Amino acid sequence: MARRGIVGLLALLVVVLLGAQPALACGGLVGPGGTVQLARTTTLAGYHQGVEHYLTSFTYSGGGAKFGSIVPLPGVPTDVSKGGEWTLQRLIQETQPQLEAAAAPVAFDAARSSAEVLLKTRVDALDITILRGGGKAVGDWARERGFGLSVDAPEVLDFYAARSPIFMAASFDARAASARGQRLGDGTPIQLTIPTADAWVPLRILGLGHQPSDAIQADLYLLTDRRPALLPEPAAAGQPGVALERSQPASELLLADLRADKGMSWVPASGMWLSYLRIDTTAGRLFHDLAVDTSGRGSPSPVAAGLVDPTEPLRPLPAPTPPAGGPAPVWPWLAAALAGATIATVVALRARARAS
Amino acid sequence: MRPRPWHLAAVAALTLAGGLTLLHAAAGQATQTVVVTMHHSRFQPEVVRVAPGTTVRFLLRNTDPIDHEFILGDDAVQRRHEQGRQREHHGEVPGEVSVAAGGQAATTYTFRQGGPASLQFACHLPGHYAYGMRGVALVSSG
Questions:
Q1: Considering its fold, how many domains does chain B have in total?
Q2: Domain residues for B77?
Q3: Global pTM exceeds 0.80
């Protein structure tokens, strides 16, 4: 994983899924009998002074049981807590002045198991577990807890585990949410603090459990110490795919507003760069992640972007070969002539010595 | 000419030897094993070649954290399982067996002489066939 010295950032992902339709019955990490539909995902991945601050919101819009999701992480969180109340909404307001009826289907989720449980906590109706393990271990962990895994989960989990064996599993108990008075559509923001030198945002997992033609839509905000270089290079604003809608210095007013929210005191008063990426694509096209380089070198890692398999040894460059059919080298003849002359000289000197 | 005891003994020995040879050949056929791995919801290998009249024991190894199944048969068999509701196969039908996550199982199938030139094997758990979890057994003596 590339080390992104300074400002980086990272992030997120969300997940989860709908299980109502038969075609998706085995998709994602869905609890037995669970039928949860997830609305559009919004995430902030901030990277400041070597620490990632990852904020996302889990929202459910239906279902009577529970659902879960898994988010690949670049490192082990030192803190998992309830996120701020308005940060994501404030970012939306900053970049999307016109309110949009954003109700695009997003879904997915993942699994993980026999894995090492690093941290467990509960935030409102969300049970959060931080896990360390390989893709199969994570999958086993989820399956043993009653979650179903989609057919693509084994490959996708291995895809992430090869780069970072840390995952966050979030299990949303809809009954608990109801008991707490949460209404359909309410979100539960979660913030993770992750010291890391790696800056990448998992995107491929957004398509977990989906058919290749299924639409994937999400909003991703990056808040970094400087303007980031991204890989794959995002599309222009307004284009389908992963489009960079905004790339600008974060205003001091925005930063002040974010700092005022719960858990957001890490945000500096100035000097941050805001990027807003809109993801509007299909699961089949979202086969990669997003590498972020804020070092100023402008070289985001292809491995971090998920474009290169880290377990595959790099193929060595072919050894340079001399051009064929060139003129015969002269130096052997010169060397032979020099050797002959030396021998002749020695013989002549010895003969002279004997004669004298 | 009346057969002498050593004549009878020789005939018995030859008969026994021939029988043992045939049994050995048959046993060799029955013990032919093909290992198929289920990994990332795909079969490895995806193509298996067998000779007509061969009895093959398929040893299935599932490395995934999810369940799979191995269903060997013609198009009609595959359609029936794709549309059916049966989700567990315990080996009572030759060529059909469920393989639990991380586990392994085996099923034996005889590719009869004069049968189809190819059969498909696939997993029909929801979404698995569409994902590409299928392979083919080519039946030829070549």
A1: 2
A2: 31-139
A3: no
